[in-house]
Design goal:
Multidrug-efflux Transporter Regulator, Chain: A, Domain 2, 2 domains, MerR-type_HTH_dom, DNA binding, DNA-binding, MerR_fam, MerR family transcriptional regulator
Length: 125
């Protein structure tokens, strides 16, 4: 767990920019370049980044700025790290502790609420 990231479910773009040192326009650009980097959007169309998104920003910052990868090279490097097949399923099947399970359930509930709000929004217009 990255100790640079506060224990929150969602972060706004300004918070992510402050935490990572990456300007908001660069974050928006990276969204267009990396398929795995897609924050959810609130009803007011604000980007809401999850912890995994912030962790990815730190990873991209390292790959692009510290290690000197190009966007294409960073994309390839990220694909190498993604678990696939049986190994990925085994990672998902790890037992959860009571505390970890509660955190996970809260995150799922929060994400479902955001999705529900997004689904309601067009109907109310």
């Amino acid at each position: 767990m990255d100790t640079r990231i506060p224990d929150k479910l969602y972060f706004r773009i300004g918070e992510v920019a402050e935490l990572t040192g990456i300007k908001p326009h660069v974050l928006r650009y990276w969204e267009s370049e990396f398929k795995s980097f897609k924050p959810v959007k609130s009803r007011s169309n604000q980007r809401l980044y999850r912890r995994k998104d912030v962790e990815l920003v730190f990873r991209l910052k390292d790959l692009l700025y510290e290690q000197g990868y190009t966007i294409a090279g960073a994309r390839k490097k990220l694909k190498e790290r993604q678990p696939s097949g049986k190994k990925a399923v085994e990672q998902l099947a790890l037992p959860l502790t009571g505390a970890r399970e509660k955190v996970l359930l809260r995150q799922i509930h929060s994400e479902l609420s955001v999705l529900r709000d997004r689904l309601k929004s067009p109907l109310e217009s």
